[in-house]
Design a protein that fits this description.
4 strands; globular; single chain; 33% strand; 96 residues
């Protein structure tokens, strides 16, 4: 899904993931914890002219920052199917 994001959004995403990998804390409004999914899960919140983009990641892994779900946000509230899909991806990540 990230490959479908506009180039400018992918570049900003890459820079911010690098910051996270280097241990730099990123807070609101760019990153917000998603405790409803699991402890250690946060979302990167990127806005562009084309819309709002969200990338969910798990930061508490000894393997580093694990990106497990990305989507384009089209409504004010995160759709329940995106939450369900993110939970599925997170379970698959931990089972691997």
């Amino acid at each position: 899904m990230i490959r479908g994001f506009p180039k400018q959004v992918r570049e900003r995403l890459g820079r911010n993931l690098f910051r996270l990998q280097m241990g730099e804390p990123i807070g609101m409004p760019l990153s917000r914890p998603m405790r409803s999914l699991a402890a250690g899960v946060s979302e990167l919140r990127l806005a562009a002219e084309q819309g709002a983009y969200r990338v969910l990641y798990y930061a508490a892994s000894p393997r580093g920052i694990l990106v497990f779900h990305a989507f384009v946000k089209k409504t004010r509230r995160t759709p329940s199917y995106e939450i369900q899909l993110a939970r599925k991806h997170l379970r698959e990540l931990f089972d691997a």
